[in-house]
Amino acid sequence: MDIQLSHVNKRFGDACVIKDVSFTVAAGEICCLLGPSGSGKTTLIRLMIGALPADSGTIRFGDTEMPNMAILKRLGFMPQNDALYEDLSAQGNLAFFGGLYHLPKRTREARIAEVLDMVELTDHKRKLVKNFSGGMKKRLSLAIAILHEPDILFLDEPTAGIDPVLRRKIWAQFQALKAQGTTIIVSTHVMDEVIECDKGALLYNGKLIEYDSVDRLLEKTGSGRIEELFFAASESEARP
């Protein structure tokens, strides 16, 4: 199902952090929310999944306005900060979240094995999470987010702080999920990650400065580097 944002606004006190944002993500696409730290990416994801109410505007998944409990069950969310139980093993974390998703025992056990294999943690399934590296925690967080086979997956800075080799592996996993029909919304401040996506939503100071296919966004630059669009937005704001 499509995701449609229409004139969404959000304030925290006197600060307007999301300013009249509108765009549509087609089902089965990877859409990148791209922007520097503080541009509003995390807030926008929290609005889209219903964790925050918008002050104005609407967010719809298909014909259903969010938040909606029936739709929430079809979403997966990987937060920026790993939401893991450090005193449980990888397998224990997955079993716990599988229970929250109300997966039947046989289905849960099969899915745990599948997602551990997908993120290459099968050999570490009984290791306590407190003994995991940062990259292993990222992969386990992804496994938890996809455990219940969501239709739409939200990923908040999933590759922050990890090495380039692991980043490539994680993006390969995202592409595999897309091939299975999953719609993916991924936030990042790493400019070159936009080329992995179908669409790019460029956020700057809470505003949507560009939204288009990645190919067309790159055509708008002189060098093929997406940073140019942010430089142009910064210069435009600086003018009297």
Protein model, in words:
This protein has 240 residues and is α/β, with parallel strands linked by helices. The protein folds into two domains: 1-74 and 152-161 and 181-239, Rossmann fold (3-Layer(aba) Sandwich), CATH 3.40.50; 80-149, no CATH class. The protein is 35% helix and 26% strand. The protein contains eight helices and ten strands. A hairpin with a 2-residue loop joins strand 9 (199-204) and strand 10. Helix 3 crosses helix 4 (105-118) and helix 4 crosses helix 5. The longest helix has 16 residues, at 164-179. It is globular, with a radius of gyration of 18 Å. The mean pLDDT is 91.
List keywords for this structure.
four-stranded antiparallel β-sheet, 2 domains, 10 strands, nucleotide-binding, 8 helices, 240 residues, ATP-binding, globular, alpha/beta, ATP binding, Rossmann fold, ABC_transporter-like_ATP-bd, ABC transporter ATP-binding protein
